[in-house]
Structure formats: structure tokens, C-alpha cells
Design brief:
By secondary structure, the protein is an alpha/beta fold. It has one domain: pyruvate-formate lyase- activating enzyme, CATH 3.80.30. It has 14 helices and 13 strands. It has helices at 16-20, 43-46, 51-55, 72-82, 100-104, 107-116, 136-141, 159-165, 172-184, 204-216, 233-243, 247-255, 259-280, 297-305, and strands at 2-5, 13-14, 26-28, 31-33, 65-68, 88-91, 122-127, 146-150, 188-189, 191-193, 222-224, 286-290, 310-312. The protein has a 6-stranded mixed β-sheet. A 4-stranded parallel β-sheet has the order 10-11-12-13, covered by helices on one side. Strand 7 (122-127), helix 7 and strand 8 (146-150) form a beta-alpha-beta unit. The radius of gyration is 19 Å and the shape is globular. The termini are far apart.
């Protein structure tokens, strides 16, 4: 892993798009490329014009590198005091504050403490790394002002497949244990099942396992999202799975590289998630994040007939 340091300019930033997603009003990002190096990651597509990639001589769609900024803490501390109208801030929205390179600088814990030292802030933690449990002692002190979420992208019996797509991430089982411990400590928790990939985590049985798990953890919200088709992520996932002999899963991902395939997959995913939550949890907790621009008219019409729990995003 090539770990780059690049000085950024932002600390705590307003994030209208994530406000529409009902995730947060503010965000803190500790870099522009996360060392978890998930093959489907869409951050490269979103931040491809960021000067950090050129400065570090890296391809925004490439793999095997991270770009973080340890000095972000200085700006976070300044903004935490400066911003008068405080609210819910997510740590992080495009990177992971508990990824391996961030952990080397202890950025997750430091940013969390710096924000929470100012009484008006609430923090939503989102990570794919179970090392967040090292900071449960800090969260304990601010339990009412922290929401703990571990991104879980498949049931644990698919860990072998997920390890290919998320090469530097904690195993699914360990992420689930971290959320279980958070719930057992009485922390506020939420579920993040994003993305649920075809052939890996989108069948009714697989979704049922995840929703039942979320219910057992007494989550406040359940976020679900189809895989983002922007950039080369789906192609990278398909090729990697084929290389490792997972031809069935590779074919399923290959099928959604077309607009028709992605639209049909998304429609069925929404139906399966709604059905499972109605059986095992509370549909009022569902936050299905959906950009409809790639939906076919027939699928769009079908979803709108029952869009309970769907958060429509993108242009009006």
C-alpha cells in the first residue's frame, strides 16, 4: 500500500447532499482515498478532479494507495468552535477515519474527541473497521451524542467473496461483533447495508439475515443502497471475482453493468428490503438511498407505487 500525505483545506464542512440522505448536516473527511481499497468504491468517480491525485501521481480510479491528511485535526478543532449552528456531523462521508492509514495517526479518535469536546455537536460514525471498538471508552462518555455504524455489505457466510472486493477491511463477522458490542453497551446504533451486491447479498434470505441482525442490535435507522455504477468499479469487481474463481458472483455483477440490468436489480432490491423490514423490524426505520437517473421507466413506475422508506436523490 502506497500511503500518501496530502494537506487538505477543509475541516468540518456543510454537506447538503448527505443532509438529503438524512445522514448528517456536516462532514469530516480525513483524506481523499481510503486504504480499505474497496474495488467498487465510487469515491474516485466523485473526486477524480481533486488535485491530490495529480500531486501524489496516482490515478483516482486506481488501487493500492491511500491519501490522507493528519493535519485535518487542526481545522476540525477550529471549525468545531467557530461554527455557531452546530448539528450532526458524519465521520466520514468519502473516506474512513478508522482505515489502516488513518489508524496510524489515530485520526478517528482524535477527530471524534475534538468534535465532542464542543457540547453542541452530535457525531455519526461510519466505518468498515472493527478497530473502532478501541474508542468505545471515549464514546461511553458521550453516548447520547454518538451514533455508531459499521458498514456491513453481506451476511458472514459471504466473507470469502467480500474479502476480494474489500481487501483491507475487517471481516464481516468482526464488523458485526463490533456493532453487537456497541448495542450491548447501550450506545446508539444504526445499520448501514451499502452496497448490497447482486449474487452476494441481495436475495430475500440474505437480506432477512441482515435485517434480523439490525433488529437485534436495536438500531435507530437502517440505510440500504444499491451499488453505485459510476466509474470502473463494477468492472474491477467482476474481473477480480473471475480471477479468484467466483464465476457465479462475477456473472451477477456483470449483468448489472448495463442500464437494464442495474435497473432491474435495484427494483428487486427495494422490494426485498421493504418486505424483510416489514417482517422483522419497522419500515419507518428504512432509509433506502436511491438516485433514479439510471432506472428504466417501468422500474421507476413500479417503485413509485410503493416507495415507503425510499429517499429519492439527485435532480428533482
Amino acid at each position: 500500500m502506497r500511503n500518501h500525505i496530502y494537506p487538505m483545506k477543509s475541516g468540518i464542512s456543510r454537506t447538503p447532499e448527505f443532509e438529503r440522505k438524512q445522514l448528517c448536516s456536516f462532514s469530516v473527511n480525513i483524506g481523499v482515498k481510503c486504504g480499505h481499497d474497496c474495488l467498487y468504491c465510487s469515491t474516485g468517480a466523485m473526486l477524480r478532479m481533486h488535485p491530490a491525485f495529480k500531486a501524489c501521481k496516482e490515478n483516482p480510479f486506481g488501487h493500492g494507495f491511500s491519501i490522507c491528511d493528519p493535519t485535518v485535526l487542526e481545522r476540525v478543532a477550529k471549525d468545531a468552535k467557530r461554527i455557531k449552528k452546530q448539528g450532526l456531523v458524519q465521520l466520514c462521508t468519502t473516506t474512513d477515519a478508522w482505515s489502516p492509514e488513518a489508524k496510524q495517526h489515530n485520526l478517528g479518535r482524535k477527530c471524534l474527541k475534538t468534535i465532542l469536546d464542543e457540547p453542541g455537536w452530535t457525531v455519526r460514525i461510519l466505518t468498515k473497521n472493527m478497530s473502532v471498538i478501541d474508542d468505545f471508552d471515549l464514546i461511553e462518555k458521550y453516548r447520547d451524542r454518538v451514533l455508531v455504524g459499521l458498514s456491513i455489505t453481506a451476511p458472514p457466510d459471504k466473507d470469502d467473496v467480500i474479502n476480494i472486493l474489500e481487501p483491507n477491511v475487517s471481516p464481516i463477522h468482526d464488523r458485526m461483533l463490533a456493532l453487537v458490542e456497541a448495542a450491548a453497551r447501550g450506545f446508539r446504533t444504526y445499520a448501514m447495508f451499502c452496497p448490497l451486491m447482486p449474487g452476494i447479498a441481495n436475495s430475500p434470505e440474505q437480506i432477512d439475515r441482515l435485517i434480523r441482525f439490525a433488529a437485534d442490535c436495536k438500531v435507530e435507522e437502517i440505510f440500504v443502497e444499491p451499488v453505485n455504477p459510476r466509474g470502473p468499479g463494477l468492472k474491477d469487481c467482476q474481473q477480480a471475482l473471475e480471477l479468484w474463481g467466483y464465476s457465479k458472483e462475477a456473472e451477477a455483477i456483470g449483468n448489472i453493468r448495463t442500464k437494464t440490468g442495474w435497473s432491474n436489480y435495484t427494483r428487486n432490491l427495494i422490494t426485498n428490503v421493504q418486505s424483510s423490514i416489514r417482517k422483522h423490524s419497522d419500515i419507518q426505520k428504512l432509509r433506502f438511498l436511491l438516485y433514479p437517473s439510471r432506472l428504466l421507466p417501468a422500474d421507476l413506475t413500479a417503485i413509485k407505487k410503493d416507495d415507503e422508506g425510499v429517499i429519492w436523490l439527485g435532480k428533482k
